[in-house]
Structure formats: structure tokens, C-alpha cells
């Protein structure tokens, strides 16, 4: 044996940028074996095996499972590698699309959290909102459990769409309840979205000026925020739509106590 043509397991592992354990595993599963084994059981790798190992590492980097790599290495050809590249290109494009969606979601959440830190929660104001969409399901007015169950089902439906869509847990309150003081009674649960979903019941919230107030704490004490909003509306002699939208702008994604949650209440000015 020409010692200059062979390397020990450690030497070969160092050259290829892998661990000795990786080489042992590849040998065990029949993916990549040493060129020879000495009488005393030492594995010896040839310099001629470097290109083969590089191919395996390249395919692994492309995300191919070891079982598929082993099969490919036993029957490799130009046609097979072109087929592999075509499959991997499709998968990479899907991964890139998903990463772009995740990047957009992170940017949206970052923007929202920064805006939240500037909130003056005792103020009532007029804000301009773009067109938004509210997907919803009816719930029993006296069942908080059903509210969160329905919201969870809608979140699962969004995830099945395969897109990283930003949303806020929300509900719609009706003007009759606001006027009679029943502001903590809800007959619907939903999600506020910036993108319309075709497969779920959807309420379009038109772009425009919205009278807006905030409530800090549990939703069952939201009446105080409605009182501030109603008083401002009366003082300014404003006419509004009959649909009030409530949604969390601070929830358990940001805070660990419901007493620190912040609910935004908005109603479009006619």
C-alpha cells in the first residue's frame, strides 16, 4: 500500500470538513465506505475518494435524504443528476417563497410592535385605515370557550393555505349593544386580516377614517373604553357605522398577562 495515497479516518474527515462519526455512519449504512481496511481494523481512505465525498456532501446540502443519495450514487448518470436538480430547484423555489412570506410577516409584526409602544391608550382619536378583512364564525354569546375554539379553527384554516398570513384575533360588536351598555357580549369570533380569504365568511371593512379608542385589561371590562369613545363621538357630533371592530393589538404574543393586553376599538365615520 502506498501510504501517500491513503488517509486515516481523522485525516480524511478533517480534509472534507466532517466528523469521524459522520464517516462511521456513512460506512455503516453503505453510503460511503473506506477504500480499504487494514489487518488491524483501521479504515483507510484514498485521495481518489475526495470527489465522491464532495458529490455526497453537495447532494446533502441540496436537502436530499441519505437514502436517496445512496440510491443515486449507485446508479448515477447525467440524466439522473438533471432529474435531481430539477426536483431540488422546485423545492428550493418553494422554500424561497416560504422564507419571503416569513420575512414579510416578521416585518409586519415588527412594525406593529413598534407602533404599539407609541400608543397613548387613554386617547380617543380619528385614524385612517386601509381596506381590511374580517373572517368570522358565529358563537354563543355566553361561551368564552367557544369563542377561542372558533378562533383556533380559523387560524388552522389559514395555516392550511400554506401562507404566512398576519392576523389579529378580533370580534365585531353591534351598535345596539354599545348603546345599551352590553359591550362585553359577543356573538362572533374572528380574525382581522390585510388579505382577503376566499374560502371563509368575510366582512370587508372599507378604507377610511375610523374613530378609535383603546382598552387595557380583560375584555369583560371593555365598557369603559366604549364610554370614552361614545362621549368623544357625541362631543364631536360624529356619525358612525353600526359595526364596531375590536381586536387585540397587544396579546399573549407580547405580554404574559391578560391584564396587560390592549384592545383596539374602531368604528368607521360616515
Commentary on this structure:
- The protein is of the alpha+beta class and 270 residues long.
- It is 42% helix and 24% strand.
- It has helices spanning 9-16, 20-28, 50-61, 66-74, 78-116, 144-160, 175-180, 223-235; strands at 6-7, 36-37, 43-46, 125-129, 132-138, 167-174, 188-193, 202-205, 208-216, 240-250, 262-269.
- Strand 2 (36-37) and strand 3 form a beta hairpin.
- The longest helix is centred in the middle third of the chain and has 39 residues, at 78-116.
- It is elongated.
- The termini are far apart.
- The relative contact order is 0.11.
Strand content: 15-25%
Q: How much helix is in the residues?
A: 40-55%
The whole-number mean of residue pLDDT values reads 87
Structural class comes to alpha+beta
Structure characteristics:
elongated, 11 strands, three-stranded antiparallel beta sheet, single chain, 270 residues, alpha+beta, eight-stranded antiparallel beta sheet
Topology:
Layout: E1 6-7, H1 9-16, H2 20-28, E2 36-37, E3 43-46, H3 50-61, H4 66-74, H5 78-116, E4 125-129, E5 132-138, H6 144-160, E6 167-174, H7 175-180, E7 188-193, E8 202-205, E9 208-216, H8 223-235, E10 240-250, E11 262-269
Antiparallel strand pairs: 1-3, 2-3, 4-9, 5-7, 5-8, 6-7, 6-10, 9-11, 10-11
Describe the structure concisely for a colleague.
The chain has 270 residues and is α+β, with helices and mostly antiparallel strands.
Amino acid at each position: 500500500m502506498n501510504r501517500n495515497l491513503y488517509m486515516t479516518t481523522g485525516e480524511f474527515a478533517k480534509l472534507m470538513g466532517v466528523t469521524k462519526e459522520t464517516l462511521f455512519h456513512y460506512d455503516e449504512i453503505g453510503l460511503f465506505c473506506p477504500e480499504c481496511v487494514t489487518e488491524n481494523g483501521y479504515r483507510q481512505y484514498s485521495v481518489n475518494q475526495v470527489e465522491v465525498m464532495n458529490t455526497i456532501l453537495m447532494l446533502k446540502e441540496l436537502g436530499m435524504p441519505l437514502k436517496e443519495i445512496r440510491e443515486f450514487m449507485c446508479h448515477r448518470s447525467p440524466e439522473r443528476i438533471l432529474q435531481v436538480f430539477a426536483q431540488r430547484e422546485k423545492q428550493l423555489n418553494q422554500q424561497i417563497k416560504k422564507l419571503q412570506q416569513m420575512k414579510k410577516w416578521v416585518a409586519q409584526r415588527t412594525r406593529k410592535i413598534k407602533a404599539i409602544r407609541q400608543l397613548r391608550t387613554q386617547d380617543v382619536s380619528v385614524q385612517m385605515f386601509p381596506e381590511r378583512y374580517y373572517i368570522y364564525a358565529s358563537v354563543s354569546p355566553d361561551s368564552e370557550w367557544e369563542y377561542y375554539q372558533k378562533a383556533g379553527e380559523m387560524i388552522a384554516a389559514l395555516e392550511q393555505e400554506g401562507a404566512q398570513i398576519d392576523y389579529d384575533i378580533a370580534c365585531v360588536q353591534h351598535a345596539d349593544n354599545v348603546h345599551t351598555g352590553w359591550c362585553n357580549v359577543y356573538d362572533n369570533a374572528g380574525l382581522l386580516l390585510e388579505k382577503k380569504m376566499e374560502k371563509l365568511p368575510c366582512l370587508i371593512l372599507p378604507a377610511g377614517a375610523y374613530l378609535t379608542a383603546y382598552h387595557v385589561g380583560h375584555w369583560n371590562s371593555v365598557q369603559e373604553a366604549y364610554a370614552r369613545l361614545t362621549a368623544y363621538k357625541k362631543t364631536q357630533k360624529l356619525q358612525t357605522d353600526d359595526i364596531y371592530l375590536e381586536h387585540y393589538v397587544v396579546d399573549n404574543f407580547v405580554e404574559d398577562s391578560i391584564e396587560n393586553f390592549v384592545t383596539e376599538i374602531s368604528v368607521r365615520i360616515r
